[in-house]
Amino acid sequence: MSETNPAAATGMSVDAAPHRYTAAMAAEIEARWQDFWDAEGTYAAPNPKGDLAGEPEMVAKPKKFFMDMFPYPSGAGLHVGHPLGYIATDVYARFHRMTGHNVLHTLGFDAFGLPAEQYAVQTGTHPRVSTEANIENMKVQLRRLGLGHDKRRSFATIDPDYYRWTQWIFLQIFNSWYDDEARKARPIADLIAQFVSGERALPGGRSWSELSAAERADVLGEYRLAYASDAPVNWCPGLGTVLANEEVTADGRSERGNFPVFKAKLRQWNMRITAYADRLLDDLDALDWPEAIKLQQRNWIGRSEGARVDFPIDGEHITVFTTRPDTLFGATYMVLAPEHPLVEKFTPAQWPDGTHQMWTGGHRTPTDAVAAYRAQAAAKSDVERQAEAKDKTGVFTGAYATNPVNGEQIPVFIADYVLMGYGTGAIMAVPAHDSRDFAFARAFELPIRCVVEPSTASDSGSAAGRGTDPSTWDDAFVSYDAKIVNSSGEDVCLDGLGVVEAKARITEWLERKGIGEGTVNFRLRDWLFSRQRYWGEPFPIVYDEEGIAHALPESMLPLELPEVEDYSPRTFDPDDADAQPETPLSRNEEWVNVTLDLGDGPKKYRRETNTMPNWAGSCWYELRYLDPHNSEQLVDPEIERYWMGPREGMPHGGVDLYVGGAEHAVLHLLYARFWSKVLYDLGHVSSAEPFHRLFNQGMIQAYVYRDSRGIAVPAAEVEERDGAYYYQGEQVSRLLGKMGKSLKNAVTPDEICAEYGADTLRLYEMAMGPLDVSRPWDTRAVVGQFRLLQRLWRNIVDETTGAVTVVDAEPADIDEETLRALHKAIDGVRGDLEGMRFNTAIAKVTELNNHLTKAGGPVPRPVAEALVLMVAPLAPHIAEELWRRLGHTGSVVHQDFPVADPAYVVDETVTCVVQVKGKVKARLEVSPSISEEELEKVALADEKVVAALGGGGIRKVIVRAPKLVNIVPA
Fold it and tell me: What is the pLDDT averaged over residues 257-283?
């Protein structure tokens, strides 16, 4: 449409205005200045020990390190939603360069991952080939936006020089253990020394010298921060691979292919992130992060205080963790997770006499019942198992445990609503006071005993007045503010106590009896760290003929990915839960089976054929930005301290600002914090936290149009008629949602840059609204920011001749109204840019520019130059061009940002509204600093106010100096 056509934006023909700012001129200006910035190294951030290119040491400046979350180089390229955060960080970085800071801002690529591997499976193209092509395409798109990145520091996680250090960090974690007393990681050699000296006892009382190599490896594996274990995983035979939880649908099938997914145990690498649970929680307090993200991490870590209790069974015991030990007398049965290792041990061959028929699931023996139920549970995802299903399922194991507080024999069930991944994988069921246990007890006709008394005085809803007979209840009664009842044994009585007192008393009793202890539990589980994929970092681990894992020496790093003939995983019968995955790396026999000298002569070894997850490379990339070409160290300590070390207000150090989506709240952000803490404990870095300040940008949304079948149709081809929307003559529905290729509503930055220029795109994305909220994309509205740039251009350059039209003038020669408009703009824009309020900064620039347009005549040089400097962080290309045309030789990037004169920022007078009975009766021009007492006197003396009062009395005067007086007559 013509109103969005840049050529029609001014109503003048191109021939009549050959020097007018058009899309073609914008493209020429932008390309030329991008070349200049690259050639001059304009955005190079020098390190404290000298520039990366070997130039002299930097001039002392305060530093700022700003980062964007790693982009993944998709084959689809960028749409206009992707650069929102990149542009915002770039504006912020440019502003800080202009306020005297040494700013490090760069961008790399998170390039390992499943999409490239899937493409390789489909096409046979090596993942590196497609990934590197995608990176080059993305670099072109990002460069066109004028982002001020220090390109010398860029890299991709697939670069062997990069993942060499990812492997090195893995080895530091593998060769470390967590010392609970010191509350820090220490080298595994320190632990071995404790075992050798006898300072730390070994299980079974044996000495270190008595243990075989395999036994020593098993002992150390219980302590290492990176360890291999048989872990439950989501196994999909139809795809031939293990899936992450996010790749499994709610009904327990693969998101790709819709194949059944089973729970299986496989030998997997894990990271002992749980050792850091307390520190990960505690250190959140000092971080400048959104409270919503902190809350998500706290909930994910899930710290809860309670007690571990042992329930005797067949000469041994089942241990449970409970946050409510005060309800032990109400435990009438137990439930184990189907995967619990004790299930088989305690399952008898025959049903005990008197077993309730419904407990057996219709099976002849407990063994049959348990096996059938385990198979049923294995077909469900953890999400599905935790869902509040109406019907509770489970089966009796045939075993009974003893409730330690009253000696009652209580049946032991398995049920899928209990997960092995939380607590001990076993619960004591108190059905009167837990809704899930209540539903299960009702379904299986199990006893329900009230031990926490509902109070008619303080409780509301269904709890009020229902008494202590659970047979009359519709649901469990849960309260932390009630008294304990029916809880008296031979040597312990909780009756009449409040919950807090009862928890303390029963915990003390359990510890005295040696059958339990007060403890802290966490929802956080150790991080499953291996994938049965090709496209990932190889583990720097080999196994000897006894199956013992050995770390490769640093001299053998990087261990590069070998070539394989087939990237596809081997698939199996989709219903064959017992099949075992075959990793692509295992097919390269020459690479897998090697002879190495690890310090004790040449021996045969087998390489690890799993690869690291795609999270690995993004756990530490902020450190590589600091010292990207260091081949001797992970990072030079002095350089790391300069950019990331602790300082005032940043007790744990870290990046000054990290910008990215909120979707990474508990995965990437938690993993990166864990790696930072390990490296900090081992003395490799001075920063215990990777990112001091976090900012989550919102999402750019777009309208999705769907036909009667629910299929998305191309948004660009939809027509609007009389409030309805049509595609090829058929009416379609419209809904605001995500932008993406699959939804056929993506708009590429290339399209907008071609039609308007990158500066216009930058301004539009920053002007759409507050940065942290989602906003709808409207291509028709982009032209508004293009017109702003055209007016800015016309205020400085003659569109007919191309000559600069500004006039030299001293401040004394500039009219006061313009000076006030200028300095108010400077003050407001400076504050808005510092506060990342880019939309309001643009509004203030627009207001000043409009003032100059309306004033007419040549713009005074001091005003024009200040305006260009204010625009520079937001629209850098046009600012560079105008700065050069104004006669300056240095780049605008490193000029000082204007400073407002306070004398012109404060208004000489402001308008005060005076209301009588809520209606405006007078408007007074008063001093901004007028006191409330003086303002009241002036208002009451005004003749219009006196007339409005008509000589009547006054009941109340409300004064909000200097802008409002509200008078309430008597």
Answer: 92
Instruction: Give the C-alpha separation, 297 to 667, whole Å.
Output: 9
* Domain 24-167+616-696, CATH homologous superfamily name and number: HUPs (3.40.50.620)
Model's pTM, two decimal places? 0.85
Specify the residue for token string 């400073």: 899
Ramachandran angles phi, psi of 724, nearest 5°: -115, 165
Q: Which of left, alpha, beta for 526 (phi over 0: left; psi -120 to 50: alpha)?
A: beta
State which CATH number among 1.10.730.10, 3.40.720.10, 1.10.260.40, 1.10.3720.10 fits the domain covering 1-23+782-906.
1.10.730.10
Q: Would you state the pLDDT for residue 386?
A: 67
The tokens describing 558, both together, are: 């990087």
What pLDDT, on the 0 to 100 scale, is given for residue 165? 98
CA angle 380, 381, 385 (to 5 degrees): 75
47: helix, coil or strand? Answer: strand
Maximum Cα interatomic distance, the chain, rounded to a whole number of Å:
110
In this structure, which topology does domain 907-969 adopt according to CATH?
Ubiquitin-like (UB roll) (3.10.20)
Q: Regarding beta strands 541-543 and 602-607, do their DSSP bridges make them parallel or antiparallel, or are they unpaired?
A: antiparallel
Calculate helix-pair angle for 838-855, 861-871, nearest 10 degrees: 160
Mean pLDDT in residue range 66-95: 94
With residue 549 as reference, give the H or E element that holds it.
strand 549-551
Mean pLDDT of the chain: 92
Token digits for 493?
């009585």
Long-range contacts of residues 783-788, Cβ cutoff 8 Å, at least 24 apart: 783/3, 783/4, 783/5, 783/6, 783/9, 783/756, 785/756, 785/760, 785/842, 786/6, 786/9, 786/756, 786/757, 786/760, 787/9, 788/763, 788/842, 788/845, 788/846, 788/849
The rounded distance, in Å, linking the Cα atoms of 356 and 373 is 17
**Of the candidates 624, 511, 612, 485, which has an alpha carbon nearest to the alpha carbon of residue 559?**
612
- Cα 52–chain centre separation: 31
Structure tokens, 566: 């087939």
Instruction: Say which residues have a Cβ less than 8 Å from residue 289's Cβ, sequence separation at least 6.
Output: 693, 694
Q: Rounded to an integer, what distance in angstroms lies between the CA atom of residue 149 and that of residue 155?
A: 12
pLDDT at residue number 850: 96
Mean pLDDT of 863-881: 98
Q: What is the pLDDT of residues 678-737, one digit of tens each?
A: 999 999 999 999 999 999 999 999 999 999 999 999 998 999 999 999 999 999 999 998
